[in-house]
Amino acid sequence: MERERLGSRLGFILLSAGCAIGCGNVWKFPWMTGQNGGGAFVLVYAICLLILGLPALTVEFSLGRAAQASPVKMYQKLEKPGSKWHWHGVLAMIGNFCLMAFYTVVAGWILYYFVSFLTGKTADLGFLGMITNPGLNVGYMAVVVVIAFILLSFNLQSGLERVTKYMMVALLVLMLVLAARSFTLPKAAEGLRFYLVPDFGKIDLSVIVAAMNQAFFTLSIGIGSMAIFGSYIGKERSLMGESVNVILLDTFVAIMAGLIIFPACTSLGLEVDAGPALLFNTMAAVFNSMAGGRVWGTIFFLFMTFAAFSTVLAVCENILACVRELTGWNRKVGSAVCGAVVFLLALTTALGYSVFHFQPFADGTAWLDFWDFIVSSNLLPIGALVMTIFCVSDRFGWGWENFKAEANAGSGIKVRDWMKPLFKYIVPVIIIAVYVIGLVGFKWK
Protein backbone atom coordinates (compact mmCIF):
# COMPACT_ATOMS: atom_id res chain seq x y z
CA MET A 1 0.00 0.00 0.00
CA GLU A 2 1.62 3.27 -1.16
CA ARG A 3 2.26 5.76 1.64
CA GLU A 4 0.05 8.83 1.37
CA ARG A 5 1.61 12.28 1.67
CA LEU A 6 0.42 15.64 2.93
CA GLY A 7 0.38 18.35 0.29
CA SER A 8 2.25 21.04 2.22
CA ARG A 9 4.17 21.96 5.34
CA LEU A 10 1.24 24.17 6.39
CA GLY A 11 -1.02 21.14 6.14
CA PHE A 12 1.30 19.19 8.44
CA ILE A 13 1.49 21.96 11.04
CA LEU A 14 -2.26 22.60 11.02
CA LEU A 15 -3.09 18.89 11.14
CA SER A 16 -0.65 18.24 13.98
CA ALA A 17 -1.81 21.34 15.83
CA GLY A 18 -5.40 20.35 15.09
CA CYS A 19 -4.80 17.02 16.77
CA ALA A 20 -3.43 18.88 19.79
CA ILE A 21 -6.00 21.68 19.68
CA GLY A 22 -9.36 20.40 20.77
CA CYS A 23 -11.35 19.63 23.87
CA GLY A 24 -8.07 19.47 25.76
CA ASN A 25 -7.54 23.17 25.10
CA VAL A 26 -10.99 24.67 25.09
CA TRP A 27 -12.90 22.33 27.40
CA LYS A 28 -10.43 20.63 29.75
CA PHE A 29 -7.70 23.28 30.08
CA PRO A 30 -10.03 26.04 31.40
CA TRP A 31 -11.72 23.87 34.00
CA MET A 32 -8.42 22.30 35.05
CA THR A 33 -7.06 25.82 35.45
CA GLY A 34 -10.10 26.85 37.45
CA GLN A 35 -9.76 23.90 39.83
CA ASN A 36 -5.98 24.14 40.24
CA GLY A 37 -5.32 27.71 41.25
CA GLY A 38 -5.56 29.72 38.04
CA GLY A 39 -2.27 31.38 37.10
CA ALA A 40 -0.25 28.93 39.20
CA PHE A 41 -1.49 26.03 37.10
CA VAL A 42 -0.90 27.93 33.85
CA LEU A 43 2.73 28.57 34.84
CA VAL A 44 3.45 24.94 35.76
CA TYR A 45 1.67 23.78 32.60
CA ALA A 46 3.90 25.99 30.44
CA ILE A 47 7.01 24.57 32.15
CA CYS A 48 5.75 21.01 31.57
CA LEU A 49 5.27 21.76 27.87
CA LEU A 50 8.86 23.00 27.59
CA ILE A 51 10.60 20.31 29.65
CA LEU A 52 8.40 17.31 28.81
CA GLY A 53 6.14 18.18 25.89
CA LEU A 54 8.78 19.43 23.45
CA PRO A 55 11.16 16.45 23.80
CA ALA A 56 8.30 13.93 23.76
CA LEU A 57 6.67 15.48 20.68
CA THR A 58 10.01 15.55 18.83
CA VAL A 59 10.49 11.88 19.67
CA GLU A 60 7.05 10.92 18.38
CA PHE A 61 7.36 12.85 15.13
CA SER A 62 10.80 11.28 14.57
CA LEU A 63 9.57 7.73 15.05
CA GLY A 64 6.71 8.25 12.61
CA ARG A 65 8.85 9.86 9.91
CA ALA A 66 11.66 7.32 10.20
CA ALA A 67 9.32 4.31 10.09
CA GLN A 68 6.90 5.71 7.48
CA ALA A 69 4.25 3.67 9.24
CA SER A 70 1.43 3.96 11.76
CA PRO A 71 2.17 3.24 15.45
CA VAL A 72 1.00 -0.36 15.17
CA LYS A 73 3.76 -1.13 12.60
CA MET A 74 6.24 1.59 13.53
CA TYR A 75 8.42 -0.31 15.99
CA GLN A 76 8.84 -3.37 13.76
CA LYS A 77 10.70 -1.20 11.25
CA LEU A 78 13.02 0.38 13.81
CA GLU A 79 13.57 -2.07 16.65
CA LYS A 80 16.40 -4.59 16.88
CA PRO A 81 15.59 -8.23 15.96
CA GLY A 82 13.95 -10.09 18.83
CA SER A 83 12.85 -6.90 20.62
CA LYS A 84 9.37 -6.49 22.03
CA TRP A 85 8.95 -2.74 21.65
CA HIS A 86 6.22 -3.32 19.07
CA TRP A 87 3.80 -4.31 21.80
CA HIS A 88 3.55 -0.64 22.62
CA GLY A 89 2.32 -0.05 19.07
CA VAL A 90 -0.69 -2.26 19.80
CA LEU A 91 -1.25 -0.43 23.10
CA ALA A 92 -1.05 2.90 21.27
CA MET A 93 -3.77 1.84 18.84
CA ILE A 94 -5.96 0.72 21.75
CA GLY A 95 -5.30 4.08 23.41
CA ASN A 96 -6.66 5.96 20.40
CA PHE A 97 -9.86 3.90 20.53
CA CYS A 98 -10.16 4.59 24.28
CA LEU A 99 -9.70 8.32 23.67
CA MET A 100 -12.50 8.37 21.09
CA ALA A 101 -14.72 6.40 23.48
CA PHE A 102 -15.32 9.62 25.40
CA TYR A 103 -13.98 12.38 23.17
CA THR A 104 -16.65 11.86 20.50
CA VAL A 105 -19.34 12.21 23.18
CA VAL A 106 -17.89 15.49 24.49
CA ALA A 107 -17.69 16.71 20.88
CA GLY A 108 -21.37 15.78 20.57
CA TRP A 109 -22.21 17.87 23.64
CA ILE A 110 -20.46 20.86 22.09
CA LEU A 111 -22.28 20.34 18.79
CA TYR A 112 -25.62 20.18 20.65
CA TYR A 113 -24.93 23.49 22.39
CA PHE A 114 -23.97 25.07 19.05
CA VAL A 115 -27.22 23.90 17.46
CA SER A 116 -29.22 25.10 20.48
CA PHE A 117 -27.78 28.62 20.31
CA LEU A 118 -28.06 28.71 16.52
CA THR A 119 -31.77 27.84 16.68
CA GLY A 120 -32.47 29.98 19.74
CA LYS A 121 -33.47 27.01 21.92
CA THR A 122 -31.32 27.89 24.92
CA ALA A 123 -33.91 28.26 27.66
CA ASP A 124 -33.79 24.60 28.65
CA LEU A 125 -30.05 24.11 28.27
CA GLY A 126 -28.54 22.37 31.27
CA PHE A 127 -25.47 20.17 31.60
CA LEU A 128 -27.09 17.57 33.86
CA GLY A 129 -30.20 17.36 31.73
CA MET A 130 -28.08 16.91 28.62
CA ILE A 131 -25.79 14.14 29.87
CA THR A 132 -28.71 12.15 31.31
CA ASN A 133 -30.69 12.23 28.05
CA PRO A 134 -29.76 8.97 26.28
CA GLY A 135 -31.28 9.81 22.89
CA LEU A 136 -29.59 13.19 22.73
CA ASN A 137 -26.20 11.79 23.72
CA VAL A 138 -26.26 8.88 21.31
CA GLY A 139 -27.66 10.97 18.47
CA TYR A 140 -25.08 13.74 18.60
CA MET A 141 -22.22 11.33 19.23
CA ALA A 142 -23.33 9.38 16.16
CA VAL A 143 -23.33 12.56 14.07
CA VAL A 144 -19.74 13.28 15.15
CA VAL A 145 -18.56 9.75 14.33
CA VAL A 146 -20.34 9.63 10.96
CA ILE A 147 -19.03 13.03 9.83
CA ALA A 148 -15.49 12.14 10.89
CA PHE A 149 -15.29 8.82 9.07
CA ILE A 150 -17.07 10.09 5.95
CA LEU A 151 -14.39 12.78 5.65
CA LEU A 152 -11.64 10.24 6.31
CA SER A 153 -12.97 7.91 3.62
CA PHE A 154 -11.55 10.34 1.02
CA ASN A 155 -7.83 10.44 0.30
CA LEU A 156 -5.56 12.29 2.71
CA GLN A 157 -5.08 15.55 0.80
CA SER A 158 -8.62 16.04 -0.52
CA GLY A 159 -10.27 14.90 2.72
CA LEU A 160 -8.53 15.43 6.06
CA GLU A 161 -5.91 17.99 5.00
CA ARG A 162 -8.27 20.26 3.06
CA VAL A 163 -11.03 20.26 5.69
CA THR A 164 -8.60 20.84 8.56
CA LYS A 165 -6.99 23.85 6.87
CA TYR A 166 -10.31 25.67 6.51
CA MET A 167 -11.50 24.62 9.95
CA MET A 168 -8.33 25.76 11.74
CA VAL A 169 -8.31 29.17 10.06
CA ALA A 170 -11.97 29.67 11.00
CA LEU A 171 -11.22 28.53 14.57
CA LEU A 172 -8.45 31.11 15.00
CA VAL A 173 -10.56 33.96 13.61
CA LEU A 174 -13.56 33.11 15.80
CA MET A 175 -11.33 32.84 18.87
CA LEU A 176 -9.86 36.31 18.37
CA VAL A 177 -13.33 37.81 17.94
CA LEU A 178 -14.58 36.15 21.14
CA ALA A 179 -11.52 37.21 23.17
CA ALA A 180 -11.97 40.82 22.07
CA ARG A 181 -15.62 40.69 23.18
CA SER A 182 -14.73 39.08 26.53
CA PHE A 183 -12.25 41.86 27.37
CA THR A 184 -15.06 44.45 27.18
CA LEU A 185 -17.18 42.78 29.88
CA PRO A 186 -17.49 44.25 33.39
CA LYS A 187 -14.90 42.92 35.88
CA ALA A 188 -12.91 41.33 33.06
CA ALA A 189 -9.70 42.44 34.78
CA GLU A 190 -10.56 40.31 37.83
CA GLY A 191 -10.87 37.19 35.70
CA LEU A 192 -7.65 37.99 33.86
CA ARG A 193 -5.84 38.45 37.18
CA PHE A 194 -6.95 35.03 38.44
CA TYR A 195 -5.96 33.44 35.14
CA LEU A 196 -2.64 35.11 34.38
CA VAL A 197 -1.11 36.10 37.74
CA PRO A 198 0.29 33.02 39.51
CA ASP A 199 -0.19 32.53 43.24
CA PHE A 200 2.91 30.50 44.07
CA GLY A 201 1.35 29.32 47.32
CA LYS A 202 -1.09 27.22 45.31
CA ILE A 203 1.63 25.17 43.58
CA ASP A 204 1.77 21.70 45.14
CA LEU A 205 2.20 18.11 43.95
CA SER A 206 -1.41 17.80 42.84
CA VAL A 207 -1.08 20.90 40.63
CA ILE A 208 2.18 19.58 39.12
CA VAL A 209 0.64 16.18 38.38
CA ALA A 210 -2.45 17.78 36.86
CA ALA A 211 -0.30 20.08 34.70
CA MET A 212 1.84 17.21 33.41
CA ASN A 213 -1.17 15.07 32.55
CA GLN A 214 -2.78 18.05 30.83
CA ALA A 215 0.41 18.67 28.81
CA PHE A 216 0.36 15.10 27.51
CA PHE A 217 -3.41 15.17 26.96
CA THR A 218 -3.45 18.41 25.01
CA LEU A 219 -0.59 17.31 22.73
CA SER A 220 -1.96 13.76 22.37
CA ILE A 221 1.56 12.48 23.12
CA GLY A 222 2.17 8.83 23.93
CA ILE A 223 -0.38 6.94 21.82
CA GLY A 224 1.00 7.63 18.37
CA SER A 225 -1.51 10.33 17.43
CA MET A 226 1.38 12.57 16.39
CA ALA A 227 3.60 9.82 14.96
CA ILE A 228 1.11 9.22 12.17
CA PHE A 229 1.53 12.78 10.88
CA GLY A 230 5.29 12.43 11.09
CA SER A 231 4.92 9.48 8.71
CA TYR A 232 3.11 11.65 6.16
CA ILE A 233 5.85 14.28 5.69
CA GLY A 234 9.22 14.54 3.99
CA LYS A 235 12.61 15.52 5.39
CA GLU A 236 12.69 19.18 4.38
CA ARG A 237 12.30 20.46 7.97
CA SER A 238 13.86 19.39 11.28
CA LEU A 239 11.37 17.96 13.73
CA MET A 240 12.24 19.87 16.89
CA GLY A 241 11.52 23.08 14.99
CA GLU A 242 8.20 21.72 13.77
CA SER A 243 7.41 20.57 17.33
CA VAL A 244 7.99 24.12 18.58
CA ASN A 245 5.54 25.44 15.96
CA VAL A 246 2.86 22.93 16.93
CA ILE A 247 3.28 23.57 20.68
CA LEU A 248 3.18 27.35 20.23
CA LEU A 249 -0.04 27.16 18.19
CA ASP A 250 -1.58 24.68 20.64
CA THR A 251 -0.64 26.81 23.66
CA PHE A 252 -1.88 29.98 21.98
CA VAL A 253 -5.34 28.44 21.56
CA ALA A 254 -5.40 27.12 25.15
CA ILE A 255 -4.42 30.50 26.57
CA MET A 256 -6.94 32.29 24.36
CA ALA A 257 -9.69 29.92 25.52
CA GLY A 258 -9.01 31.03 29.08
CA LEU A 259 -8.96 34.67 28.02
CA ILE A 260 -12.47 34.14 26.65
CA ILE A 261 -13.90 32.14 29.54
CA PHE A 262 -12.51 33.59 32.79
CA PRO A 263 -13.37 37.28 32.20
CA ALA A 264 -16.85 36.12 31.17
CA CYS A 265 -17.24 34.14 34.40
CA THR A 266 -16.11 36.91 36.74
CA SER A 267 -18.26 39.47 34.95
CA LEU A 268 -21.34 37.57 36.14
CA GLY A 269 -19.92 36.35 39.45
CA LEU A 270 -19.96 32.71 38.34
CA GLU A 271 -17.69 30.04 39.81
CA VAL A 272 -14.54 29.29 37.83
CA ASP A 273 -13.96 25.90 39.48
CA ALA A 274 -17.12 24.22 38.16
CA GLY A 275 -15.15 21.32 36.66
CA PRO A 276 -16.24 19.66 33.40
CA ALA A 277 -19.51 21.61 33.45
CA LEU A 278 -17.66 24.95 33.28
CA LEU A 279 -17.85 25.18 29.51
CA PHE A 280 -21.52 24.24 29.35
CA ASN A 281 -23.48 25.51 32.36
CA THR A 282 -21.32 28.53 33.07
CA MET A 283 -20.79 29.76 29.52
CA ALA A 284 -24.44 29.17 28.59
CA ALA A 285 -25.42 31.33 31.57
CA VAL A 286 -22.96 34.01 30.45
CA PHE A 287 -24.41 34.20 26.93
CA ASN A 288 -28.03 33.97 28.07
CA SER A 289 -27.54 37.04 30.26
CA MET A 290 -25.54 39.04 27.69
CA ALA A 291 -26.90 41.50 25.14
CA GLY A 292 -26.77 39.69 21.80
CA GLY A 293 -26.03 36.51 23.73
CA ARG A 294 -27.55 34.19 21.15
CA VAL A 295 -25.16 35.45 18.48
CA TRP A 296 -22.11 35.34 20.74
CA GLY A 297 -23.10 31.93 22.08
CA THR A 298 -23.47 30.60 18.54
CA ILE A 299 -20.03 31.93 17.60
CA PHE A 300 -18.47 30.52 20.79
CA PHE A 301 -19.84 27.01 20.34
CA LEU A 302 -19.03 27.05 16.63
CA PHE A 303 -15.43 27.76 17.65
CA MET A 304 -15.67 24.92 20.16
CA THR A 305 -17.11 22.59 17.52
CA PHE A 306 -14.21 23.28 15.14
CA ALA A 307 -11.73 22.67 17.97
CA ALA A 308 -13.34 19.37 18.95
CA PHE A 309 -13.61 18.11 15.37
CA SER A 310 -9.97 18.92 14.65
CA THR A 311 -8.89 16.36 17.25
CA VAL A 312 -11.59 13.82 16.42
CA LEU A 313 -10.48 13.80 12.78
CA ALA A 314 -6.79 13.56 13.63
CA VAL A 315 -7.13 10.73 16.14
CA CYS A 316 -9.58 8.80 13.96
CA GLU A 317 -7.06 9.11 11.10
CA ASN A 318 -4.54 7.42 13.37
CA ILE A 319 -7.02 4.64 14.16
CA LEU A 320 -7.80 4.21 10.48
CA ALA A 321 -4.11 4.12 9.49
CA CYS A 322 -3.37 1.43 12.09
CA VAL A 323 -6.29 -0.75 11.03
CA ARG A 324 -5.52 -0.35 7.32
CA GLU A 325 -1.91 -1.40 7.84
CA LEU A 326 -3.05 -4.47 9.74
CA THR A 327 -5.73 -5.48 7.24
CA GLY A 328 -4.84 -3.93 3.87
CA TRP A 329 -8.32 -2.40 3.58
CA ASN A 330 -8.90 0.72 1.50
CA ARG A 331 -10.04 3.96 3.12
CA LYS A 332 -13.76 3.42 2.56
CA VAL A 333 -13.92 -0.08 4.05
CA GLY A 334 -11.59 0.86 6.89
CA SER A 335 -13.63 3.98 7.69
CA ALA A 336 -16.87 1.99 7.87
CA VAL A 337 -15.44 -0.63 10.22
CA CYS A 338 -13.50 1.80 12.42
CA GLY A 339 -16.50 4.11 12.63
CA ALA A 340 -18.70 1.24 13.82
CA VAL A 341 -16.19 0.21 16.50
CA VAL A 342 -15.74 3.78 17.77
CA PHE A 343 -19.52 4.22 17.89
CA LEU A 344 -20.01 1.05 19.94
CA LEU A 345 -17.24 1.98 22.39
CA ALA A 346 -18.57 5.54 22.74
CA LEU A 347 -22.00 4.19 23.71
CA THR A 348 -20.54 3.48 27.16
CA THR A 349 -19.93 7.19 27.73
CA ALA A 350 -23.02 8.41 25.89
CA LEU A 351 -25.23 6.19 28.07
CA GLY A 352 -23.02 6.30 31.13
CA TYR A 353 -25.15 8.87 32.95
CA SER A 354 -28.50 7.29 32.16
CA VAL A 355 -28.44 3.60 31.21
CA PHE A 356 -24.96 2.11 31.72
CA HIS A 357 -24.46 3.23 35.31
CA PHE A 358 -20.85 2.65 36.30
CA GLN A 359 -19.05 4.43 39.14
CA PRO A 360 -15.38 3.45 38.82
CA PHE A 361 -13.88 5.87 41.34
CA ALA A 362 -15.29 8.52 43.67
CA ASP A 363 -18.99 9.26 44.01
CA GLY A 364 -20.39 10.80 40.86
CA THR A 365 -17.81 9.36 38.49
CA ALA A 366 -18.90 7.53 35.34
CA TRP A 367 -17.61 5.95 32.12
CA LEU A 368 -16.13 9.25 30.96
CA ASP A 369 -13.92 9.37 34.05
CA PHE A 370 -12.88 5.74 33.49
CA TRP A 371 -11.80 6.30 29.88
CA ASP A 372 -10.13 9.60 30.77
CA PHE A 373 -8.19 7.89 33.56
CA ILE A 374 -7.05 5.10 31.23
CA VAL A 375 -5.86 7.56 28.59
CA SER A 376 -4.76 10.73 30.41
CA SER A 377 -3.38 9.25 33.60
CA ASN A 378 -1.88 6.07 32.17
CA LEU A 379 -1.49 5.48 28.43
CA LEU A 380 -0.27 8.97 27.53
CA PRO A 381 2.53 9.28 30.13
CA ILE A 382 3.50 5.59 29.86
CA GLY A 383 3.57 5.83 26.07
CA ALA A 384 5.70 8.98 26.14
CA LEU A 385 8.09 7.19 28.51
CA VAL A 386 8.34 4.11 26.28
CA MET A 387 8.94 6.16 23.13
CA THR A 388 11.59 8.32 24.79
CA ILE A 389 13.50 5.33 26.21
CA PHE A 390 13.30 3.57 22.84
CA CYS A 391 14.90 6.58 21.13
CA VAL A 392 17.77 7.09 23.59
CA SER A 393 18.64 3.47 24.39
CA ASP A 394 21.63 2.51 22.24
CA ARG A 395 21.76 -1.04 23.53
CA PHE A 396 18.11 -2.07 23.48
CA GLY A 397 16.25 0.55 21.44
CA TRP A 398 16.61 2.62 18.29
CA GLY A 399 19.51 4.63 19.70
CA TRP A 400 20.43 8.26 20.21
CA GLU A 401 22.35 8.71 16.96
CA ASN A 402 19.54 7.27 14.84
CA PHE A 403 16.99 9.45 16.60
CA LYS A 404 19.15 12.59 16.32
CA ALA A 405 19.80 12.01 12.62
CA GLU A 406 16.07 11.67 11.88
CA ALA A 407 15.03 14.60 14.06
CA ASN A 408 17.70 16.87 12.53
CA ALA A 409 17.05 16.04 8.87
CA GLY A 410 16.11 19.27 7.08
CA SER A 411 16.41 22.92 8.04
CA GLY A 412 15.34 24.30 11.41
CA ILE A 413 16.07 23.84 15.12
CA LYS A 414 18.31 20.85 15.80
CA VAL A 415 18.59 18.30 18.59
CA ARG A 416 22.05 18.76 20.11
CA ASP A 417 24.23 16.30 22.00
CA TRP A 418 24.09 18.47 25.12
CA MET A 419 20.35 17.72 25.19
CA LYS A 420 20.94 13.99 25.57
CA PRO A 421 20.75 14.02 29.40
CA LEU A 422 17.38 15.79 29.10
CA PHE A 423 16.01 13.07 26.83
CA LYS A 424 17.75 10.15 28.54
CA TYR A 425 17.40 10.97 32.22
CA ILE A 426 15.43 14.10 33.10
CA VAL A 427 12.32 13.43 30.99
CA PRO A 428 11.96 9.73 31.97
CA VAL A 429 12.60 10.41 35.68
CA ILE A 430 10.08 13.25 35.82
CA ILE A 431 7.46 11.19 33.97
CA ILE A 432 7.93 8.20 36.30
CA ALA A 433 7.91 10.33 39.46
CA VAL A 434 4.84 12.36 38.56
CA TYR A 435 3.03 9.28 37.23
CA VAL A 436 3.54 7.39 40.50
CA ILE A 437 2.61 10.42 42.59
CA GLY A 438 -0.50 10.86 40.47
CA LEU A 439 -1.62 7.26 41.02
CA VAL A 440 -0.96 7.44 44.76
CA GLY A 441 -2.89 10.68 45.09
CA PHE A 442 -5.73 9.69 42.77
CA LYS A 443 -9.23 9.82 44.26
CA TRP A 444 -10.03 6.14 43.99
CA LYS A 445 -12.96 6.20 46.39
Radius of gyration: 21 Å
Q: What structural category arises from helix and sheet content? A: mainly alpha
Strand content: under 5%
Low-confidence stretches: none
**Span between N and C termini?**
49 Å
**Number of DSSP helices?**
18
Average pLDDT, all residues: 86
* Global outline: globular
- The helical percent reads over 70%
The ordered H/E elements are: HHHHHHHHHHHHHHHHHH
Verbal overview:
The protein is mainly alpha-helical and 445 residues long. Helix content is 73%, strand content 0%. It contains 18 helices and no strands. The longest helix has 35 residues, at 293-327. The termini are far apart.
Blueprint (SSEs and pairs):
Elements: H1 9-20, H2 23-35, H3 39-67, H4 71-78, H5 86-119, H6 127-131, H7 134-152, H8 157-183, H9 188-196, H10 205-219, H11 227-230, H12 239-267, H13 278-288, H14 293-327, H15 331-350, H16 367-392, H17 400-408, H18 420-440
Helix pairs in contact: 1-8, 1-12, 1-14, 2-10, 2-12, 2-14, 3-4, 3-9, 3-10, 3-12, 3-16, 3-18, 4-5, 5-7, 5-14, 5-15, 5-16, 7-14, 7-15, 8-12, 8-14, 9-12, 10-16, 10-18, 12-13, 13-14, 14-15, 16-18
Briefly say what this structure is:
With 445 residues, this protein is mainly alpha-helical. The protein has helices spanning 9-20, 23-35, 39-67, 71-78, 86-119, 127-131, 134-152, 157-183, 188-196, 205-219, 227-230, 239-267, 278-288, 293-327, 331-350, 367-392, 400-408, 420-440.
